[in-house]
From TrEMBL:
This is GerMN domain-containing protein. InterPro entries: GerMN (IPR019606). It holds the Pfam family Germane. Residues 58-143, 199-285 form the GerMN domain. It comes from the Bacteria.
Length: 320
């Protein structure tokens, strides 16, 4: 784990001679993401970042994110009473540790701060994901769901006051049928914050399981979503190790295609890859390789009427 204090001292000395490294032109390879003066959105400004060791570049960007600006049009995203106490980089995943004051931020300020920090740091070639911790605990949302690894695509742009608006949508989710050998499509109307991506909304509701007692949750109990993001039509879903727990009541392809088919309802998604804590080696159970891209497959979908008939017959057989 890298201690940021030593780096900040070094960067401060360098800044005295470099004018903080900020360029006046827009042709810089890197940008710092700040908050606008109204603190309603994230704005980018070109930054002259010296190429070098990844650790040095991370330290420089973190220092800039925590340093007051010279402009009245934008301001630093990390408040003065919030400090980054530690950080570490492991396999393209950057872990940032904040002091307890981070949890005292207003919700809109916190989302904007997080977006600015993540967008700034993932510009580095060796940083693909960023994860926040407050103290030693992973950052969680208002519903105590761990936010996990984030990328630039984790944040939906909503200008002005729209940042925390509540919207309503209808999701098309695929849950397991009564026998665990088929999928049933369900329409579910949900209200959600405009800050959450549609991919994350789908995965969270899929993990919650169905409201219909004749259906089953397709994913193993206790599975948590680490991250979900879409790039060039491919949706990358990262789940924690609980996903590997065996639930033989649900057949193997039903688990995989509940995820793939549900996410593929989004028009911009053509393929899905599933990983466990960011790792794509190995297979799920016996035959579904984690390094493969899967397309929507509706061959396992059965009608709701078929499922209700099966469920009724099963209940009749159980009745003495």
């Amino acid at each position: 784990m890298k201690k940021i204090a030593g780096w900040l001292g070094f960067i401060l000395l360098v800044s005295l001679f470099t004018g903080c490294g900020r360029q006046e032109t827009d042709d810089s390879a890197y940008h710092i993401y700040y908050l606008n003066k109204e603190k309603t959105k994230v704005v980018e400004q070109p930054y002259d970042l010296k190429e070098g060791k990844t650790e040095d570049m991370i330290a420089t960007l973190l220092d800039a994110l925590c340093t007051n600006t010279d402009s009245v049009e934008y301001q630093k995203p990390v408040p003065g009473d919030v400090t980054i106490t530690d950080w570490s980089l492991e396999s393209n995943q950057l872990f940032l540790y904040f002091n307890d004051n981070y949890s005292k931020m207003q919700s809109t300020d916190e989302v904007l701060c997080r977006a600015a920090v993540v967008k700034t740091l993932v510009q580095l070639p060796d940083v693909k994901y960023v994860s926040f911790y407050v103290g030693d605990a992973p950052l969680a949302d208002s519903r105590d769901n761990v936010i996990g690894l984030m990328t630039e695509e984790s944040f939906v742009e909503n200008p002005g006051k729209q940042i925390n608006s509540i919207q309503t949508t209808t999701l098309h989710l695929y849950y397991a049928n009564a026998d665990g050998n088929g999928l049933v499509e369900c329409e579910k109307e949900v209200q959600y914050s405009s800050n959450i991506s549609m991919e994350k909304l789908i995965m969270e509701n899929l993990l919650k399981g169905p409201d219909d007692k004749n259906l089953k949750a397709p994913l193993p109990e206790g599975t948590n979503l680490v991250n979900v993001t879409t790039t060039n039509g491919i949706c990358y879903v990262t789940l924690d190790e609980a996903f590997l727990n065996q639930n033989y009541e649900i057949q193997e392809p039903i688990v995989i295609y509940s995820i793939v088919d549900s996410l593929s309802e989004i028009s911009t998604i053509s393929k899905v890859q599933i990983s466990v804590n960011g790792k794509t080696s190995g297979v799920y159970r016996d035959s579904f390789a984690l390094d493969q891209l899967y397309e929507q497959n509706l061959d396992y979908v059965v009608s709701a009427d078929e499922n209700e008939t099966v469920s009724t017959e099963a209940q009749t057989e159980e009745t003495p």
